[in-house]
From TrEMBL, chain B:
Record keyword Transferase present: yes
GO molecular function, one term: acetolactate synthase regulator activity
Domain ACT: 12-87
Keyword GTP-binding: no
Protein name as catalogued: Acetolactate synthase small subunit
Record's subunit section: Dimer of large and small chains.
Origin species: Sphingopyxis bauzanensis
Job of this protein: Catalyzes the conversion of 2 pyruvate molecules into acetolactate in the first common step of the biosynthetic pathway of the branched-amino acids such as leucine, isoleucine, and valine.
Length: 584, 171
């Protein structure tokens, strides 16, 4: 218990909580905290160029380290600019604590300069939020906020701190142990549920593991446990966009991603399975396709830390509430306990091999040096060139994101950072900044679309300031490709406002910020261009020109079942009925 | 294209929450954001140290939606418990209404007579008006108000439902 100013308490609490990095942007309502930071060199403050980028950088930091990301912004516009990243973190369950300045308590509610109702605005896009009216409460609230952000299903927590609370003094206290009065997520699974699950897994003839971001959030041990359980049972594995990396993509039991742009084999196996074991995945509409046709003949086990995810969209036969890692450990123990042996799943694997034989990720391309580059080829080349370098890959949102998910492969968690739930264009580049800050010596590449990149392109300045060797690899198709693809498929190619007009010269832009810029135009230049990027120290932007009108396949059109995948461009229809159009 | 919604049954939920600023906004916001119905909502602080509030929510929906509502409420940080009173067997429900009726002559006498049948109390009177206080299930209150419409009803205030499970146990 020590007497100090609110601002000093904030910084002291961050130190006590082991925070090493804060992403932020100053302003009037947080000047006391900035002054306290000035005196505390142990906390590194990364000055972004826009508060949205601070939140995505914090997400990139969090996803690549497993530790909570911390953001500091001013009141009013600082707080509202942070809202997109806060919402993104909520939907992808990323632990994050956002400190916002607020006008002094005496002015709250008067429409004061740079006042906004931050707790009101963020009430439904945070896991929890606080307005601190008393400096004595700051210590306990800060510690509690980190607890809530990181325990149970992780998520963003906002702490709104009026300026006079930062200036006033109070006593700083650290709660011994956070024993929250109402928030007590169940982390240990029920033994009965585990026993029932193991019996179902052992009896299944056509089982499949369907895993998601919950496995990544449960830490590297959970990924290791998943591998072990999958090996024991001999069952195939597919994963959501958020779960990529939890299971090694070069393993024979890996079927690739499932869902709208997932593989044919993953979606068919989900459809024909007699048992789905969902682990830390939430049956998102991008995954299930048409619900009444979703995996009609399977029993379903759902392991999730969030009870509200269970039976939300797809009714399941067995719910296991708990941490994914602990549940997987318990399943492994129960499997051994009961002396189960892997069943002969030969017939199941033969059917899966039949679906694999469609080679659904193949794409038509010209092979000569002067040919235009297919975007899939560019991703494959990038993957091949960085094998063994253990890169961290971030993406923006659009076709390039799906091509990256399909053709870039991971064998460990925390290497794949993408905005899944909110699908936020402008996420990828600042997320790469955050990941690079956390891992200064690693290779961090943002696979970007030319349109998305422009949503937070101002962060080039941040990268220059902190001398970060971030690489941006633009799949430049000169279109908002994903929008154009939907217009082609659903609106008879009426390309309303989806052309990326008036693009900057990215090479000159690189130059303007002191980066290295290079452009790749033809297939013959691809491999060398990538090598140049990898061999150039410091930040590099690669403007890789790719085929403009390529579409991302396979694809389950909205409102269609897993079995109705479009595999190739010539399967396309140019229109859709209103029911299908109404689906996002 | 038509947009259809599924019908459902009525449930009464008792929700115990931290008595803190913004909690009501959080709960009502959850209902509006996820498209759940609120038919009635009451809230008051219920503990000696003023730390806890009880919110009684009357909602309706198909069983899966009711389950979701409960799970969604339960995961809010300041929520201590959520109980579906229909689940635990019998419960008692009450609502209070203040009903103002104006008029003279036969209508006035009729109003008073019906209030007597419904055991409504007269809590204020002038030469040309009464205010009745009626307590009962929402259904009973509805019926009384419907009758008063014929007898010069001018204003109604209702509390919404409070409810509690029968028997010795607390939720
Ligand atoms: C902030 C935001 N606004 C709009 C969208 C809708 N949207 C999804 S993909 C996309 C186009 C992305 O274009 P680009 O970055 O060039 O990627 P491409 O699809 O061409 O690979 C748009 C506009 C979005 N996801 N996020
Ligand atoms: Mg594009």
């Amino acid at each position: 218990m020590t007497e100090m100013s609110g601002a000093d308490m904030v910084v002291q609490a961050l130190v006590d909580l082991g925070v090493d990095t804060v992403f932020g942007y100053p302003g009037g309502a947080v000047l006391p905290i900035y002054d306290a930071l000035f005196k505390h060199p142990t906390i590194k403050h990364i000055l972004v160029r826009h508060e949205q980028a601070a939140t995505h950088a914090a997400e990139g930091y969090a996803r690549s380290t497993g530790k909570p990301g911390v953001v500091l912004v001013t009141s009013g516009p600082g707080a509202t600019n942070a809202v997109t990243g806060i919402t993104d973190a909520l939907l992808d369950s990323i632990p994050m604590v956002v400190l916002t300045g607020q006008v002094p308590t005496t002015l709250i509610g008067t429409d004061a300069f740079q006042e906004c109702d931050t707790v009101g605005i963020t009430r439904h896009c945070t896991k929890h939020n606080y307005l601190v009216m008393d400096p004595d409460r700051l210590g306990p609230i800060l510690h509690e906020a980190f607890y809530i952000a990181t325990h149970g299903r992780p998520g963003p927590v906002v702490i709104d701190i009026p300026k006079n609370v930062q200036v006033a003094t109070g006593t700083y206290s650290i709660p011994n142990r956070i024993d929250h009065k109402s928030y007590r997520p169940q982390v240990d699974p029920d033994a009965e549920a585990i026993a029932a699950a193991i019996a179902m897994i052992a009896a299944a003839e056509r089982p499949i593991f369907y895993t998601g971001g919950g496995v990544i959030n449960a830490g590297p041990d959970a990924s290791a446990a998943l591998r072990q359980l999958v090996a024991l049972t001999g069952a195939p594995v597919t994963s959501t966009l958020m779960g990529l990396g939890a299971f090694p993509a070069d393993d024979d039991q890996w079927l690739g991603m499932l869902g709208m742009h997932g593989t044919y084999e993953a979606n068919m196996a989900m459809n024909r399975a007699d048992l789905i074991i969902a682990v830390g995945a939430r049956f998102d509409d991008r995954v299930t396709g048409r619900l009444d046709a979703f995996s009609p003949d399977s029993k379903k086990i759902h392991i999730d830390i969030d009870r509200s995810s269970i039976n939300k969209i797809v009714p399941v036969d067995l719910a296991v509430v708990g941490d994914a890692g602990r549940a997987l450990d318990a399943l492994i123990a129960a499997w051994a306990d009961k002396g189960h042996k892997a069943r002969d799943l030969g017939e199941w694997w033969r059917r899966i091999d039949g679906w694999r034989a469609t080679r659904c990720l193949d794409f038509p391309e010209k092979k000569e040096d002067g040919a235009e580059i297919m975007p899939q080829r560019a991703v494959k080349a990038l993957f091949d060139a960085t094998r063994g370098m253990d890169p961290i890959i971030t993406t923006e949102v659009g076709q390039h994101q799906m091509w990256a998910a399909q053709h870039f492969h991971f064998d460990s968690p925390n290497r794949w950072l993408t905005s899944g739930g909110l699908g936020t264009m402008g996420y990828g580049f600042p997320a790469a900044v955050g990941a690079q800050i956390a891992h200064p010596d690693r290779l961090v590449i943002c696979i970007a679309g030319e349109a998305s990149l422009q949503m937070n392109i101002q962060e080039m300045g941040t990268v220059s300031q902190y001398r970060l060797p971030v690489k941006i690899f633009i799949l430049n198709n000169q279109w908002m490709g994903m929008v154009r693809q939907w217009q082609e498929l659903t609106y008879e190619s009426r390309y309303s406002n989806s052309y990326s007009d008036s693009l900057p010269d990215f090479v000159k832009l690189a130059d303007a910020y002191g980066w290295t810029g290079l452009r790749i135009d033809t297939l013959g230049e691809l491999a060398d261009g990538i090598q140049t990027m990898l061999g150039t120290p410091g930040p590099v932007i690669v403007d890789c020109r790719v085929a403009q009108l390529a579409n991302c396949f396979p694809m389950i059109p909205s409102g269609a079942a897993h079995t109705d995948m479009i595999l190739q461009p010539n399967d396309i229809v140019g229109t859709m009925d209103d029911e299908a159009k109404a689906l996002v | 294209m038509k947009i259809t919604t599924e019908a459902g049954e009525r449930h009464v939920l008792a929700v115990t929450v931290d008595n803190e600023a913004g909690i009501l906004a959080k709960i009502t916001g959850l209902f509006s954001a996820r498209g759940y119905n609120i038919e009635s909502l009451t809230v008051a602080d219920i503990s000696a140290d003023h730390a806890l509030s009880r919110i009684t929510i009357v909602t309706s929906g198909p069983p899966a939606v009711i389950d979701q509502i409960i799970a969604q409420l339960d995961r809010l940080v300041p929520v201590h418990s959520v109980t579906d009173l229909a689940d635990g067997g019998a419960h008692v429900e009450r609502e209070i209404a203040l009903v103002k009726v104006a008029g003279s002559g036969d209508k006035r006498i009729e109003a008073l007579r019906m209030a007597d049948v419904f055991r409504a109390k007269v809590v204020d009177t002038t030469l040309s008006s009464f205010i009745f206080e009626i307590t009962g299930t929402s259904d009973k209150v509805d019926r009384f108000i419907a009758l008063m419409r014929e007898c010069g009803l001018v204003e109604v205030g209702r509390t919404g439902v409070v409810a509690i499970a029968r028997g010795a146990e607390a939720v």
